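Components:
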Amino acid sequence: MGEFKVHQVRFFEYMPTGIRALAFHAQNEKMAVARMDGSVEICDCSDNFFQEKVIPGREQCGIEALSWVGDRLFSAGLNGEIAEYDLTNQKVKYTIDAYGGPIWTITGNKQGTHLAVGCEDGNVKLFEVNEDKIQFERNLNRQKGRIISLSWHPSGSKIAAGMMDMIQVFNVETGHSIHRMLVDRGLRTSRSEECVVWSVVYLSDGTIISGDSAGMVKMWDDCTGTLIKSHNVTKSDVLALSVSQNEDSLVAGTSEGFVVQFQFVSVVLEKDEKEWVRTRTFKNHTHDIRAVAEITTAVVSGGMDTQLVVRPLLDKVEVRSTASALRKILFPHRRLVSCAKKAGLMLFQYPSHLELWRLGESEGQAIPGSSLPIIKKPEKLLLLKVKGEEHIRCSIVSPCGEWIAYSTASSLRLYRLNCDNNNVSITKISKLPKVLSSANQLCFSPDSSHLFSASIESSVHMVSLNQLGCKYVATLKPKSGSKQAIHLLTASEDGKWLASANSDHEVQVYNLQKRKAHCTVPIYSSAVSAMAFHPTTNCLFMVHADQQMFEFSIEQKQYTDWSRSVQRNKLHHIWLKRDTPVTNVMFNPKNPSHVILHDMYMLCVIDKSLPLPENSTQFYNQLTLKSLPAEERKFYSHAFKICKTFREILCVEQMLDQSLVVVERPLMDITTQLPAPIKQKKFAT
Amino acid sequence: MSELIQTQFESSEDELPEEVAFDESKSAALKSVKDALESDKREKLLLKEKRRKRQQLFQEQKRKKCLPEDVLEEFDTLPQKQSKASDNNKDDEETVNESEAEAISKSLQDSYSVMRLKDNSSARSLQQHASDFIQSRLYGPGTQRTTSKKT
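Structure:
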């Protein structure tokens, strides 16, 4: 039924960057994740942690801390600048130099009026948050050491600062230091090395909790300025602390890769005296944990092993569902690979360069499951470096293989490619229409005659391409007037329709001949993770982050019958429990009822002509079907055919000769290139 | 025994007291006064010498702080030239600036140097210092790290 020649590609050396900071926005349930290369991702915690917005970073620009103030996101880094992000357009709004040297931490007060930054020169600087910008207000009393961490008291009147060897408590109004609490240097490290207080948390009852480089979590009293209790958690550093909303649970992330939970419980049953007691340990990381955040029902942690781990707290989860399973987010939810179907070329997007490869060739036939001999090896045709310091936001190669386009946060570049067998030449199209300044997403029409660029306010610019260059044709604007950025664009095979999906969960369909909006798909609560037009029926097939799928007929402007039957029957529970989103949808030219999807771990062919599986039937039934005789197979087979032979799939694409390309990135290859973890003594080694 | 005593007495009794001539004592007294005067003078001369040297040193330092004389002369003549064309002015100013820069660099001590604000190297070095700090705390000596391949 589905026999494909598959190119198994492992030469895309995708390397994710470590997570440096997390910031949780409680009302919207959004998690902001800052990475070491300066990029920020906004994940929707209620939508399976789908990465709904990605703000690319820059060279030589790391982020040290993130903070939400109301609905605004601020970050600070070692370059001494505070940046505010424009989340609607997914870029940096502006940066302000704090003039205090490298900034180690930034935190906003609960009232949303002020931002405090801790600087290398020992100053705690207060900035007033105005409507459009932030403005420097004053410095608190300057200290002699660097300020590593800060925490506001919920009332906003006091602020605790973690420094080298000590914790200082400041009175915000006067700027004076109220208490100076000295932290012990560790016993196992040399006495001459100072103890760094990596993280502090200030509770509303006046308790200050600190995590330091000696591996201790200490509880201090701010009335008397003395130590209440000290817990030895690890033999390396405690790098991050986070307290829950109602202040009864604290999580500490360590350098060894485990998260320790403390809970504020009464030691004796039914007595009111409560204490911070160490309860659980979660070991889900292999490398240092640089950031933890406790959200309402889970503990989210991220660190140098680049994975975002969501560990639900089972005592807070009421119903056992997909939400109560451990989730690890490793690969990005956006595509980094695009392919030129007619030319057999693949374009790989790295942060600051692009690579164009030609696929290898093989010959002969073989039985399914075996590999064919390669007669021509894949070769790297082009390495295109980005001019400037910004990272690439999106990139694409045209289906004919003659055009390459990429966009950073501030500019868009278009190149014309000439491949005559062995000679590859590339020319930059210098005169671009003025509207093409920066794109959130790019898409070529299937005949490579037009380029679509998703721009501000959910609008799409359409430009035509020919031998001479590029000419502006039209701008397609949505009827709803949404301002959010588009993250998915797809064009139909006949070149008549274009669909766009934005962060407001809107899917717009445009008529390219009339160059106007045609219809909108009814808004669904989950974001679209992949969508494509069927080549013959022009139905739009959409898969969402919560694993639901819909098929929408463009001509009739309503869901198709098959889509309705899927919603009635409800998808199989094993399909819904998958924890990675589908990132590409393709169709089989030989069989119009086939839909090919993939996520990080599996490749699936859905046969719409076969019945849908019931919840009670076996889902992964490929092997059992093979063992049955032919007549019985028809009785048991259902629409979902899953193939799990490939590991850690980054992308699956389809070529013109109906072969599939599977780009794999085995986790082992990523792990071996990560920075060194702490040596841990394992049993029997 | 009595003879010994007698001789002693005799020696002290028999001899006449020494005669000291008036002239000799006078000359001795005068000489001592002269010596005192001379030593006084010498001291004064020495002090004067010291003061002179100190004064010279101060003058030298003061001279070092100021611009050399030829530049000062040019400054005096510069306001007179302002009425001329702007091109000429600029050239002069440039030459003045250049010579000024040279003069400053000649007069600066060894540990100082002239840098442009555009080069902005201080911010970079601070950032480097901070990232070195965190690198050394997390991955430097004292931490027990192993390679990723062993995990």
